[in-house]
Amino acid sequence: MEILRTLEQIQTFSKKSKESGKIIGLVPTMGALHEGHLSLVEYARRQCDVVIVSIFVNPVQFGPNEDYTMYPRCFAQDCEKLQLAGVDAVFHPTAQEMYPNGYCTYVMVDGEITHTLCGTQRPGHFRGVATVVTKLIHLAQADKAFFGQKDAQQVVVVRTFTKDLNIPCSIITVPIVRETSGLARSSRNRYLSPVERKAACILSQSLRQAKDAYIRGNHNADSLKQLVTQHLQKEPLALIDYVSLYTYPGLEPIQIISEPCLLAIAVRIGTVRLIDNVILGGDPL
């Protein structure tokens, strides 16, 4: 497994792979890898000849009061996991390498898809995501890029700008990987105390209740959102950022579910902000 730290190194590696006629898969991550990330790698290995994983905590997608400096960084342990998973190369640049002095170009995705959910709660977040993913896809010359459903809005944003900018890279969505408790795997879970981790199970429980209600015939968006909200409020440690339901992947408001929809939540357990979601009415991923 090669460790690539500069733009020149990843460009040289990707060029050689392309010249050999190989399909390149990219798995963008910020490190602190868990089973969810490794499932992305597994999907990439099945579909591609070469797999590149990026490990880069992207400063431009964090707001001024968010956890950029505190975001977990454990590069050596991450590399051990990736080598066992059969990854061909890891791209691990510095922020200075990605955004040198004088850098002033960003990718903006306008419209409702960035003005709802985490776009409302985290202004500027998707500008940072779109910028770094655009750079990574170009640097890796990726044919396919793999993202988790847990970040469902991010998938919509990435698919939108790759289509709009005519970037020839297929965006593949991989299902959420959960702990046995139901808690969605996340690098931020390591911040949770044992008590908070137990409390965080309320996220998946509330979504499961809503999905069961939907299956039983409740297709009213407001009713399902209220059901989730009421269940989350049973947990004293849970502070709700949002409970939202939109069409998916369009992310348009809806009252009665008649097409695939995304029921998404963001909840703070203590100081840790967690997100989770479920697709209702089909699987458009």
SSE order and pairing:
Blueprint: E1 2-4, H1 7-19, E2 24-29, H2 35-47, E3 50-55, H3 75-84, E4 89-91, H4 95-98, H5 118-121, H6 125-140, E5 144-148, H7 152-164, E6 170-174, H8 194-200, H9 202-215, H10 221-232, E7 238-247, E8 261-269, E9 272-280
Parallel strand pairs: 1-4, 2-3, 2-5, 3-4, 5-6
Antiparallel strand pairs: 7-8, 8-9
Please describe what this structure looks like:
Helices cover 37% and strands 20% of the residues. It has 2 domains: 2-174, HUPs (Rossmann fold), CATH 3.40.50.620; 187-277, 2-Layer Sandwich (Pantoate--beta-alanine Ligase, Chain: A,domain 2). With 285 residues, it is α/β, with parallel strands linked by helices. Strand 8 and strand 9 form a beta hairpin. The protein has helices at 7-19, 35-47, 75-84, 95-98, 118-121, 125-140, 152-164, 194-200, 202-215, 221-232; strands spanning 2-4, 24-29, 50-55, 89-91, 144-148, 170-174, 238-247, 261-269, 272-280.
**What Rg do the Cα atoms give?**
19 Å
CATH class of the largest domain: Alpha Beta
Oligomer: single chain
Report the uncertain regions: none
Overall geometry comes to: globular
- Tell me the number of structural domains: 2
Q: What structural category characterises the helix and strand content?
A: alpha/beta
How much is the average pLDDT? Answer: 95
- Count of beta strands: 9
Main sheet, how many strands, which sense, barrel? 6 strands, parallel
CA-to-CA gap between the ends? 30 Å
What percentage of residues falls in helices of 4 or more residues?
25-40%
User: Considering the protein shown, what is the CATH homologous superfamily of the largest domain?
Assistant: HUPs
